[in-house]
Write a structure and sequence with these properties.
The chain is mainly α. The protein is built from three helices and no strands. The protein is globular and about 35 Å long.
Length: 71
């Protein structure tokens, strides 16, 4: 959870290293599409008509503000 929001891919948990190329491709796609990670993830969630709510875990009020700006 939150793995798609990691900005510095050099900090990937070793568990995810086998998917490293896919994460770099994802970041390249974001750049090509002029998208940010949070907005992209939220748009994906919203694309499912059967999802009417989702839950966020945050650590700071700034994170809440970021989510509000991205929606």
């Amino acid at each position: 959870q939150g793995i798609l929001l990691i900005e510095d891919l050099t900090r990937l948990n070793p568990y995810f290293l086998s998917w490293k190329k896919k994460f770099y491709a994802y970041h390249a796609w974001l750049k090509d599409e002029n998208q940010d990670q949070l907005s992209s993830c939220l748009a994906h969630i919203k694309s499912f008509s059967w999802v009417d709510r989702f839950l966020f875990a945050v650590q700071t009020t700034e994170q809440i503000k970021e989510i509000q700006r991205a929606t």
